[in-house]
Amino acid sequence: MDKKFRRVPKVKLLVAGDSLYDHAARADRQRALVRSARHLDLRRAAGRKGRRVVRVRRGACTSGRPVRISATEAASRTSHASPTRPTTAMTDSQIQADRAYATAWRIFFDSRRYDHRGTLDLMEPHLRKIVASGRRDLSILSVGPGPGDVDADVARLLRRVAPQGGSVRYVALEPNAIHREHFTAMTRRPELAGVQFDVRATRVEDLKTHERFDCVFYMHSIYHMPGQEERLTREALGMLNEGGILVITVDHEHGQMYTLIKKYVELTGYQGYWTASEAGLITGESLKGIMERLGLKYETAEHDETIDVTLCFDDQSTTGKALLDFIYQTDFSAMSDDVKRQLLVYLNEEAVERDGRKLIHEPSITVLVPRP
Predict the structure, then answer these.
(1) What is the biggest distance separating any 2 CA atoms in the chain, rounded to whole angstroms?
(2) DSSP secondary structure, 301-352, as one string
């Protein structure tokens, strides 16, 4: 029998109940994993051309996942940008790290069949309700939007539902310099004329503002703040206008990337990963658990998505190698030949073939929380 992807229901309304997990214990385990990751990366990378490699959390940076940067680059990231401009000039190593991440992120984004239409459909009735209440000016805070591929559609939605003569203000927090440049270029599209964009080089953890928004939006970016999700949820709700919404999209717990990372951990004993099995990397289930812990009503939309991993099996493909790094959250080139072969076996076991392409299932879920 051919392997088939699980299909997931589209939208459901839930009322908060008991917490699904112990968040404090999860945070403690997660901090231990991060310490282990940093220690093991330094030890394993010793002697590799004198260049130490560490795994670091990139804060609320971009849609995607954490990447490796050099120890020198990690040490240089000691100052954070202000809401309007960097407090200090960026170093060459910071720019190179941002460019490397932006390149890897683009490969992953282009390989994944994203389905954010369901997110927009979930948001639209709430935005229309806000307009119907008499508000003429709409505003949104987008956290870690990357180069703005999804945000362009969100901005179009806001422009469409805004009342005639009203305004749309779009604040984007994007610390990655390369993504910020691309996002700024996106804002100049003719169909977005009239939207007041405000692109800031800062992290949400450092945001100090009395501004209020109709929507706070995390699209695959809250992964970068492990252990802070509950606090950020409370803070986001506190930044909402009456009738405003918090919208967060993360990967589903049934995503095959989690399965693959778990297999890699079991194969190598390497514990430097925020895996679903260790309750470290936030998933749809743990995100809903946060909302239930806080006693919040929420709606969900689940999205059936896939990642094309065909090029991962091409020894000559640099794109395939970069994609393997993202899927396993490791430096694939540093693996032994035996480990590389086994990881490809795992990937092949999880993949299905469609129209000559190899795909893995990576569904995601959007959780929408109206302001209480």
Answers:
(1) 64
(2) EEE--EEE-GGGG-TT-HHHHHHHHHHHTS-GGGS-HHHHHHHHHHHHHH-E
Contacts of 7 (CB under 8 A, 6+ apart): 304
Axis-axis angle for helices 92-111, 318-328 (nearest 10): 90
Q: Identity (one letter) of the amino acid at 136?
A: R
Report d(CA 343, CA 337) in Å as an integer.
Answer: 10
Per-residue pLDDT reduced to its tens digit, 62-121: 444 433 333 333 333 333 333 344 445 788 888 888 998 898 899 999 999 988 999 999
Q: Where are the domains of the chain?
A: 11-306+361-372
How far is Cα 86 from Cα 84, in angstroms, rounded to an integer? 7
Of 21, 44, 263, which Cα lies nearest the Cα of 55? 44
Domain spanning 11-306+361-372: CATH superfamily:
Vaccinia Virus protein VP39 (3.40.50.150)
Taking the alpha carbons of 356, 357, 358, 361 in that order, is the dihedral positive or negative? Answer: negative
Whose CA is closest to 148, among 203, 202, 221? 221
| DSSP code of residue 89 | P
The per-residue pLDDT of the chain, averaged, comes to: 79
Q: What pLDDT digit, counting tens, does each position of 201-252 carry? A: 999 999 988 999 999 999 999 988 888 999 999 999 999 999 999 999 999 9
pTM (whole model) above 0.85 = no
For 155-167, write each residue's pLDDT tens digit.
Answer: 999 999 999 999 9
3-state SS class at 219: strand
